[in-house]
Write the C-alpha cells for this entry.
Amino acid sequence: MEHTFDSPRNPGYHSPIMPLALTDLLSPDVPVQGELHVGVPVAELPRLAAALTDSDVELEADISVRPLAGPVAALAVEGRIAGALPLRCQRCLETVRIEIEQALNLAVAVAGNEEQLPAGFEPWPLVAGPVSLGQLLEDELLLSLPLAPVHEDAQACGPLADTLSSMQQETTEQAENPFAVLKDLKR
C-alpha cells in the first residue's frame, strides 16, 4: 500500500502559522490565521503619529489572529502592543514619554452580531467592511492615550510650569475670602 498525503498513516497536514502584516485585512468572511511579532513604526500609523510630538518611535507588537468558534463568524485578535509614546505635557507643553501597554482580546465580527460572540472577548464590530490590522491596532492605541498627559512630578516640568505655579499661589493669596465679612458678625 502506498502512503500518500492523506493516508491513515499520515495524520494530515498542519500548516505553520503565517506571519501577518499591518496591511492584512480582517474580515470574519475570510478566515485569517497568523501572528505578528514585530516592531511597529508609529510613522505607519498616521492618526497616532499626528497625536505625538515625534513619530520616530517604534512599538512592540505581539499579536495573533485566528478564527473564533461560535454561532457567528468572527476573528479573535489577541496579544499586546507596548512602547513609550512622546506626548505633549498639558502642564508645561514639553514632551513627556508615556508608557503604553495595551492588551488585546478582541472579537472582530459584522456589526449587529456582538451579543452572539463568545464571552471573554471585547466586540469589534465591522460596520463598513473589512479593517486592516494596522487600523485596528491604531484605534486601540488612540483609545488608550490619556486625555491630558502630564509629567508624573510637577518638578519634571519646564520653567513654564514653575511660572504658572507661582502665579496661582499669588492669586490664591490675593483673593479675598468672600466670607471674611461673616467673621466680624460672629462677635
The longest helix spans residues 159-174. The chain has four helices and eight strands.
